[in-house]
Write a structure and sequence with these properties.
Layout (H helix, E strand, L loop, with lengths): L10 H4 L4 H11 L4 H8 L18 H13 L5 E2 L12 H8 L2 H4 L11 H18 L3 E2 L6 H15 L8 E4 L4 H14 L3 E4 L12 E6 L10 H9 L3 E6 L17 E5 L15 E5 L12 E5 L5 E5 L6 H4 L12 H39 L3 E2 L7 E5 L4 H10 L2 E2 L1 E4 L2 E5 L6 H10 L36 H13 L21 H4 L5 H4 L11 H18 L3 E3 L5 H18 L7 E5 L4 H9 L3 E5 L9 H10 L4 E7 L11 H10 L3 E5 L12 H4 L3 E3 L20 E3 L37 H33 L18 E4 L1 H7 L3 H10 L6 E2 L6 E4 L7 H22 L29 H5 L18 H6 L14
Parallel strand pairs: 1-13, 3-4, 3-5, 5-6, 6-7, 17-18, 17-19, 19-20
Antiparallel strand pairs: 2-8, 7-8, 9-10, 11-12, 12-15, 14-15, 16-22, 21-22, 23-25, 24-25
Helix pairs in contact: 2-24, 3-24, 4-18, 4-24, 5-12, 5-15, 7-12, 7-15, 8-9, 12-14, 13-14, 18-24, 19-20, 21-22, 24-27, 25-27
EC number: 1.4.4.2
Family: Belongs to the GcvP family.
Catalytic activity: N(6)-[(R)-lipoyl]-L-lysyl-[glycine-cleavage complex H protein] + glycine + H(+) = N(6)-[(R)-S(8)-aminomethyldihydrolipoyl]-L-lysyl-[glycine-cleavage complex H protein] + CO2
Amino acid sequence: MPDQTAPHAFVGRHIGPTASDQDAMVRRVGYESLDALMQAAVPSSIRSTSPLNLPAARTETEALATLRALADRNNPGVAMIGLGYHPTVTPAVIRRNVLEDPSWYTAYTPYQPEISQGRLEALINFQTLISDLTGLPTANSSLLDEGTAVAEAMTLIRRATKGKDALPIVIDAGLLPQTLAVTHTRAEALGIELLEVDLAGGVPDVEAAGIIVAYPRADGGIVDPRPAIEAAHAAGGLAVVVADPLALVLLESPGSLGADVVVGSSQRFGVPMFYGGPHAGFMAVRAGLERHLPGRLVGVSVDSAGRPAYRLALQTREQHIRREKATSNICTAQVLLAVAASMYAVYHGPAGLRGIAGDVHRKAVALAGGLRGAGIELVSDSFFDTLVAVVPGRAVDIVSKAREIGIHLRLVDADHVGVSTNEATTAEHVEAVLGAFDAADPDWTADDTSLPADLLRSGEILTHPVFHEHRSETQMLRYLKKLSDRDYALDRGMIPLGSCTMKLNATAEMEPISWPGFADLHPFVPADDAAGMIELVETLEGWLAEVTGYAGVSIQPNAGSQGEFAGLLAIRGYHRSRGDEHRTVCLIPSSAHGTNAASAVMAGMRVVIVTSTDQGEVDLDDLRAQCEAHADDLAAIMVTYPSTHGVYEHGITELCDIVHAHGGQVYVDGANLNALLGHAQPGVFGGDVSHLNLHKTFCIPHGGGGPGVGPVAVAEHLVPFLPTHPLHPVESKREGVGAISAAPYGSAGILPIPYAYVAMMGAEGLTDATSVAVLSANYIAKRLESAFPVLYSGEGELVAHECILDLRPLTKAAGLSIDDVAKRLIDYGFHAPTMSFPVPGTLMVEPTESEDLAELDRFCDAMLAIRSEIDQVVAGEWPDGDNPLVHAPHTMRTLLDWQHAYDIGTGAFPAGTTDDKYWPPVGRIDQAYGDRNLSCSCPPIEAFAE
């Protein structure tokens, strides 16, 4: 164990229980030492025999100095490359009070809406923003990026156009190259035929299920999308428009032009480029398509007092309900970035956005005038912010000349150069670019527009008061504070969610992401100008390969769901390379995460379920039977380890041997790596591929539901099948399996976080963190076992890093639901554990290593007090319909008119609460009402009146 008391040692800051606390906890669990506990818990067949080969742990100061040196090796310059990524000006009040504020970035996905009202309001602002700009009534609360958003729109076409499964989908060659690459990867896996056509030249006369059209195009041109939309509708298909939201401030909304679906990225609404991500993609749909939306959708309902309240609507976590029939494998979103983008619109308002968009366009017009004045032809006469100049044989020299003066342009090919203006473009930048072309100065007196007259926006945007009330920084600051105060995040207390690993996101880890060397870097600058970032990525990939025992890692997948998809594509690519195209069956245990089944279907595989034993382990007898039955077509098994039930299964190596013997590959889902790190390596004990959740084990914050990173790690024989990207800075990684995410390194901007975490923890620290996580889970299980039975355990009655508490007998006897217990925990000052997953009627608790003993005991005390309350209900001391559980959570407003069979102190100030207790802003939310009365944009201010 590393010395936690050494001056400036980070491990002692990350791990909550002190050495003496750990000793007391170990004794309570029944062991003499932490090492003895781990020897008993982790099966000997998988236990590592040697320590991890990682650099010695660094102090915070040392780690930050290393990261600073890496950032300084990057050359962001003046990025005018475009291609969907643009420099922005993030208002400092948003940067400091959202992106850098733990009350926003340490929150969890708002499955408990009563304690997520601030985040949900910010997201419904985002949905309203997107709905207004796109001209469509319903927008979701973000997707992962533009490329995957277009891919999701493609699958939406397939789902929503019944009877047209065999028909192709027409996709515009004018889309961004990375968007085309991601969509082709997804289409090929699903067996969807894409017809890539340059729609600027007209709509092909083919029968298609739908059309996806660019507005504007990658070359900057603005082509009227109405002919494509009308052609799609005439064929009975759907029309998808891929749009730039800043351009839509000036251009007519696609919805008003007839589009059924609009997708894109909100990056340029105040979010840094981050070398490609994280950024909030979006999707908006016409009426009738709401239930086909992937991802998250925030709606308006009412609480127990009949007041408006926000909650997640419709298809929330549909992967766990529909599994292999799910319409998408997306389990998260980009909430933190969507919040930032929404607040950018709140900060500027419609007039400010029009001013920014107009200024961006004016500079593009001035640039175009200067180029034309020098006799340089442009590819398109109509544009918003992007020009492609025709310069036969001169392109390389022009781009090189611009780079020498600190400006990055786009080298299209030997004869064409692309230039994009943006919010940060100055008059001096325009003049310098013209100088690189040997062109004259721009004519700033011109008052022309290059937007098509018949496509200019005519209606108002952002009419809701929220986009008009916060002009001063004082009001903006107070609005952000008001919203964050309505939420519960790790800055308030423990979030003991099983399967989700809500642990410390240290400030030292978070600090570097805002540094210009990382934040302002365009993903398509030359490799030499991203040398520090590329070294960071390659170093981190090497560390992740070491800790998992695999041969290679790709950091490209920007969510766990995308990592699953990438891993399965690697398996499929391997089988195909051996002539085994027929190997398409994916075995999935009945207890698995729902995204596993959805990902398998997306990768073109057929799901076959393997049963679980009464102890929650994979039934090896059924596994053998399934492997025998599918010996000729078995592709893989997806298994979570430790199991989804929170147990170290002793049969995992045998499971791997069985599958390998029948020609299959073993996919070890890395969701629970927090129970293995430093003690066992999936790539050593039998896994062929794993995805990792960096927003879990490696401290990237959940951000209220995103960002995440889901790198894929593979054995040597699968390395050739890792994701590729047509614009990858490393030339050898441009051709192959295909792109999974829009940027070559996915959400690269947040990779300094896990880099800092691994650097500051070192091998011993990471190993110790796992040990304490397992200790904390077993400590909670031991303290609560007499009140709430632990549903599953391994040898020695031990659990892994989480435990499932079985409340079903108790709640049934008392006439209560699991919701009643979860909401009552809010009154005690806690976010509820994971509810009813993987077993209905249970709570799955994961304390992590970051919570100290006092907080663990506070949680246990609260759970024991709730058990006493349940007993009182069973004994008839409180009426079935009037007790502290069924009316939880209690708001401050309920104190004004108290009419319950129990006293105020019991209801609103239960045992252990203090004057600093958290007050939920709303009462119990009526979920069914919200689905019956679907409303997913900002409600009128009158709705909140008394």
